[in-house]
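Protein folds are increasingly written down as discrete tokens. With that in mind, we are printing a sequence and the tokens encoding its fold.
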Amino acid sequence: MPRTGTQEVQPALVIRTGRSDECQAHFHPDRYQLVLCRDGVEEKVDLGFSGSRLLERLLRVPGEVVARDELLAFAWSDRIVGQGSLNQQIYALRQVLGDEKKREIIQTLPRRGYMLSPKFLVNFDNVADVPAPSFFEQLQLPRRANRTANQQRLATLMVATAVVALLSLIVFTYIYYALFQSQVLVAERDIGNKHFVYAATAPQALAQLQSDTAALSVRVAGLAEQPVQFRLGANAGFFEMLCVQRDTTRWMMINRAQIAKVADEQLRSCLQ
């Protein structure tokens, strides 16, 4: 997909991943691609348009929170999608970066957005001097444009009575624990030596995804000659499939209405 009307940026291109083999990821936004480098071996990962734009936006302001609505507008500027699409793309990026368990590289700020930690950027200036924010610091981390307003609100809060402070704490606790953002759920399946991982944001959506892509899973498993890990998710009117092999990772999107009509040649393109 061509990029028009956007400002060219020079993000920090090298990211230290969370993998145990000291792997580094070289980001190429012009090619929508990450190149994983370890022990002299390179693995190319096609992020797709939305995945690449999402990572590019986070890399513009490492250490700062980017709101969910802002990420949606930047990564899906050509169409309207829901929060589930953003959750799945974040999950996919974390998987590629080896960050799906610790979530230290792309950090979640509850009810606010996401932040890319500068400590994982190899060529970020003075990165060693930037301390990792604590959990409570992240919850209160202000956007630069709003620091003055936040300080005024903090001063007002400090002069409130003890009863109001207690009620505020109760309300905050309820919001954080009861209304915490949706988590990505996964299910796994093996077909021969092919491993399938299905991801969705709700149990019903996960079950529906497995049902809708059951025939597709059998087809691609039969077309793959080597061991492959397939990761599938749903995004608006499309299914997304990530084909992970030893030295390559490819991403393809399949229209929901055309899933039964996809030619073998198209599916094989994800396996090459």
In short: Confidence is low (pLDDT under 50) at residues 1-12, 126-151, 171-182. The longest helix spans residues 162-178.
